[in-house]
């Protein structure tokens, strides 16, 4: 039987009703207050159409700002944050505090019920401390062993709390903090948390809202965007060195999510006054869509 494709936004949103969507909001996206409010408005529209949405957020720029105000040093290697004792305290204040509350409040303004939490709540995300890691930077011709401090790598996910909240008609808003089995807190990459939660709840789609239009073949040229690719093509771009810096872990998480059952991953520019979240779900040609194979490409 051939099923007609939905022809307008309402019909496409209705087609998503009852399905799970994970939206990761980067810290750089939340610097734009007007844009953040627009994202909350669009998530609320999805909520009202019966889409089960989980929001995950970062907050790197905001953490840097608070660290500077507190006269704490900020150290990064190859774009990755070193989380010493001071940096962990800042992360708890920013990720688990101010940003999480701002997102919950923004969703409330637009009529959506949201609950703020972190990976530490109800064993949602359990981590282990990242061991010293050899970081190679071919462009600089250097390599060094780096101790990232209080940075956690995910070992397990218990999504029962998310299912409970979603079934109660609420939007979980998850900060990128988690604990190990002994209750020690760690800073965790927000893209990684978003990816692992999307896998755990069998999400239809993982959307990464960042400050670039999508995956670029030339990081200096925003017009070099790739509108659609599959895992193999994305892996080839990684291996060629075309994907660098903060986009590299995003691309790796895209592949991991698709390998573990997430149907579609999308990378969008959310750092603008009118982020195209709803647009990306209802028509093609927005951001970069990554699917497991070319045969499964869709919007």
Explain what this protein looks like in three dimensions.
There is one protein chain. It contains 9 helices and 16 strands. It is an alpha/beta fold and 299 residues long. It has one domain: Acetylglutamate kinase-like (Carbamate kinase, 3-Layer(aba) Sandwich). The protein has an 8-stranded mixed sheet with strand order 5-10-2-1-13-15-16-14, with helices on both faces. Strand 3 and strand 4 (80-81) form a beta hairpin. Helix 2 (33-48) crosses helix 4 (85-109) and helix 7 runs antiparallel to helix 8.
Reconstruct the topology from this structure.
Blueprint: H1 9-16, E1 20-25, H2 33-48, E2 52-57, H3 60-69, E3 76-77, E4 80-81, H4 85-109, E5 114-118, E6 125-129, E7 133-137, E8 142-146, E9 152-157, H5 160-167, E10 171-175, E11 177-179, E12 185-187, H6 190-200, E13 205-210, E14 228-230, H7 231-240, H8 247-259, E15 264-269, H9 277-282, E16 288-291
Parallel strand pairs: 1-2, 1-13, 2-10, 5-10, 13-15, 14-16
Antiparallel strand pairs: 3-4, 6-9, 7-8, 11-12, 15-16
Helix pairs in contact: 2-4, 3-4, 6-8, 7-8
């Amino acid at each position: 039987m051939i099923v007609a494709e939905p022809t307008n936004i309402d019909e496409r949103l209705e087609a998503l009703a009852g399905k799970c969507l994970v939206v990761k909001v980067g810290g750089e996206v939340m610097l734009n207050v007007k844009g953040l409010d627009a994202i909350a408005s669009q998530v609320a529209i999805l909520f009202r159409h019966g889409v089960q949405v989980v929001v995950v957020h970062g907050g790197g720029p905001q953490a840097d700002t608070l660290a500077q105000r507190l006269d704490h040093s900020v150290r990064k290697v190859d774009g990755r944050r070193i989380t010493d004792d001071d940096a962990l305290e800042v992360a708890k204040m920013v990720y688990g505090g101010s940003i999480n509350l701002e997102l919950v409040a923004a969703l409330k303004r637009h009529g959506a019920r949201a609950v703020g939490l972190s990976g530490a709540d109800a064993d949602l995300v359990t981590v282990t401390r990242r061991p010293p890691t050899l970081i190679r930077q071919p462009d600089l011709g250097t390599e060094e062993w780096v101790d990232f401090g209080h940075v956690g790598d995910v070992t397990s996910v218990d999504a029962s709390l998310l299912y409970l909240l979603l079934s109660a008609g609420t939007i979980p808003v998850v900060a990128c903090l988690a604990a190990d089995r002994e209750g020690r807190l760690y800073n965790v990459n927000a893209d990684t948390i978003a990816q692992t939660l999307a896998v755990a709840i069998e999400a239809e789609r993982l959307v990464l809202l960042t400050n670039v239009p999508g995956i670029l073949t030339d990081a200096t040229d925003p017009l070099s965007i790739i509108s659609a690719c599959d895992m193999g093509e994305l892996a080839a771009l990684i291996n060629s060195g075309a994907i660098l810096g903060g986009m590299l872990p995003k691309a790796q998480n895209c592949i991991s999510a698709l390998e573990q059952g997430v149907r579609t991953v999308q990378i969008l520019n959310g750092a603008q006054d009118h982020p195209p979240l709803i647009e990306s779900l209802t028509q093609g040609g927005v951001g970069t869509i990554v699917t497991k194979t070319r045969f499964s490409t869709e919007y």
